[in-house]
Write a structure and sequence with these properties.
Elements: E1 2-7, H1 10-25, E2 29-34, H2 41-50, E3 58-59, H3 67-85, E4 89-93, H4 97-108, E5 113-116, H5 128-139, E6 142-145, H6 148-156, E7 163-165, H7 169-184, H8 187-191, E8 199-202, H9 206-209, H10 214-222, E9 229-232, H11 235-244, E10 254-257, H12 262-271, E11 274-277, H13 280-288, E12 293-295, H14 303-307, E13 311-313, H15 321-324, H16 343-353
Parallel strand pairs: 1-2, 1-4, 2-3, 4-5, 5-6, 6-7, 8-9, 8-11, 9-10, 11-12, 12-13
Length: 355
């Protein structure tokens, strides 16, 4: 079976590593298309090297731009490729512009579409990611859901056919790569930080960094914490900080570092006292590693984390951030919320059965 996989952003590279392995082990031919949504070494190439992902068969080279530009360019370039490849399935991941472009291109050409991480909902339509995931789900023929909640979300929208609860592929990725990271990474020594002595911050979503002074308010609040903060800054976040003149005003307790690879990030997450993030992936990794987290939003597409006490919401304007930081430990809750780490093998099996 030939499967065209469409990816383009850092979180998708992590997910494609275990799923791609499983597809190859099942005897499928995977044609990997990289849209170029994330394109520099720190955000893309390092992940292919570290996770031993095969070099992309096709790179669309779309690069940065507005959501409309990126999605339109990807769609324009994907159409001829899918016609030429004529795959049995197109496989997309998550909620990025690459996800939506892959879903639309496959649907227009009537090629069966499978969506990994289907059914996630924040119910915040201001988020571009929410629109991407909703539209991709409604175009998909196979919907690989990570949790019971995601299955229920789809049922409420009238989607029941082709829905499979397989677990979270990021849990499987972490199980594969955490021990490798702990052997190889020297990130704590390089940064001169001790285990459990710092908070780890990530912030990149548009609603966090682009609107109504929220980035300024976030960094002001974090600057008041009584804990050093390590901040691997996403390029778009760093650019926004420079535009707003925030870097010179940062508290001395916030240390900006360049984006780090997946192995270094796992070690930083595992050894943090608390994680502050607006990333869906980092939220779950914190849970898997039993590190308390504060979600820098007013809602999350992973409500299970709130229900079991693993995460706390910072609020729409980060008003709950400081009280949330008093939390230092949490019970991981039911171990099987996100499956058992075998999601990739289950996805490969479902695709085999769908031939």
């Amino acid at each position: 079976m030939k499967i065209v996989t469409v990816v383009g952003a850092r979180p998708q590279f992590i997910k494609v590593a275990p799923v791609g392995r499983a597809l190859r082990n099942a005897g499928h031919q995977e044609v990997l298309v990289h849209t170029g949504q994330h394109y520099d070494d720190e955000m893309a190439a390092i992940f292919f090297r570290e996770l031993e992902i095969p070099r992309p068969d096709i790179n669309l080279g779309v690069g940065s731009g507005s959501h409309s530009f990126q999605t339109g360019e990807m769609l324009l370039r994907l159409g001829p490729i899918l016609e030429q490849q004529n795959p049995d399935w197109v496989l997309v991941y998550g909620d990025t512009n690459s996800t939506l472009a892959g879903a639309l291109a496959a649907s227009k050409l009537r090629i069966p579409l499978a969506h990994v991480e289907a059914g996630m909902r924040s119910y915040n339509r201001v988020m571009p990611e929410e629109l991407n995931r909703v539209l991709a789900d409604h175009a998909s023929d196979l919907l690989f859901c990570p949790t019971r909640t995601s299955v229920e979300n789809l049922r409420r929208e009238g989607i029941t056919k082709g829905v499979r609860q397989v677990g979270d592929v990021m849990y499987g990725a972490l199980q594969i790569f955490l021990s490798i990271g702990e052997r190889r990474s020297r990130i704590l020594d390089e940064l001169g930080v001790a285990p459990r002595s710092y908070a780890l911050l990530t912030a990149h979503r548009a609603e966090t960094v682009d609107f109504d002074g929220r980035l300024t308010r976030l960094l002001t609040q974090i600057g008041k914490l009584d804990l050093p903060v390590v901040f691997p800054a996403h390029p778009r976040t760093l650019k926004r900080m420079q535009t707003l003149g925030l870097i010179e005003k940062l508290s001395s307790g916030i240390r900006i570092v360049p984006p780090v690879g997946y192995l270094d990030m796992l070690v930083l997450e595992r050894q943090a006292r608390v994680i502050l993030t607006d990333s869906g992936g980092v939220q779950r990794e914190a849970f898997f590693l039993a590190v308390p987290s504060v979600i820098l939003r007013g809602e999350t597409e992973w409500p299970e984390l709130i229900e079991v006490g693993a995460s706390t919401l910072a609020g729409e304007d980060f008003e709950a951030l400081t009280p949330a930081m008093t939390r230092r430990e949490h019970d991981r809750g039911p171990r099987d919320i996100f499956g058992h780490g075998d999601a990739s093998a289950r996805i490969a099996g479902e695709l085999s059965s769908a031939q």
